[in-house]
Amino acid sequence: MRNIVKKKVGELQINPHIKEVLLQVLGPDEDVYVENTGKGVRIIL
């Protein structure tokens, strides 16, 4: 089963470089879906 959680871009605990790009493109209040995989994190726009 997939573990997908809805979060705001500003709340994400991810690599700062990736978060910076997402903040520039989407903004801090935009909702995204985050899936924790065995190898890392998948962000679904």
Overview of the structural elements:
This protein is an alpha+beta fold. The protein has one domain (4-44). 22% of the residues lie in helices and 33% in strands. It contains 1 helix and 3 strands; from the N terminus they run βαββ. It has one helix at residues 16-25, and strands spanning 4-8, 31-36, 41-44. A 3-stranded antiparallel β-sheet has the order 1-2-3, with no helix packed on it. Strand 2 (31-36) and strand 3 (41-44) form a beta hairpin. The radius of gyration is 10 Å and the shape is globular. It starts with a strand and ends with a strand.
Spatial ordering of strands, largest sheet:
1-2-3
Portion in strands = 25-35%
Span between N and C termini? 20 Å
- Compute the number of helices: 1
Could you spell the SSE succession in H and E letters?
A: EHEE
Q: What is the 3D form?
A: globular
Mean pLDDT: 94
Radius of gyration: 10 Å
Domain module count: 1
Helical fraction: 10-25%
Uncertain stretches of 5 or more adjacent residues: none
Summed up:
The chain has 45 residues and is an alpha+beta fold. 22% of the residues lie in helices and 33% in strands. It has a three-stranded antiparallel sheet with strand order 1-2-3, with no helix packed on it.
Question: What topology emerges from the helices and strands here?
Answer:
Elements: E1 4-8, H1 16-25, E2 31-36, E3 41-44
Which labels suit this protein?
single chain; 45 residues; alpha+beta; 3-stranded antiparallel β-sheet; 1 helix
